[in-house]
Amino acid sequence: MKSLIKIVVLFMSINFSSSLYAADSLMVKTIGLELARDIASESVKACRKLGYQVSAVVVDRNGLLQAALRDDLATRFTLQIAEEKANSVILSGINSGEFRKARDDIRPELNHMRGIIIMQGGLPIEIAGSKIGAIGVSGAPGGHLDERCAQQALDTLSDRIDFAE
Question: What pTM value is reported for the model?
Answer without folding.
Answer: 0.83
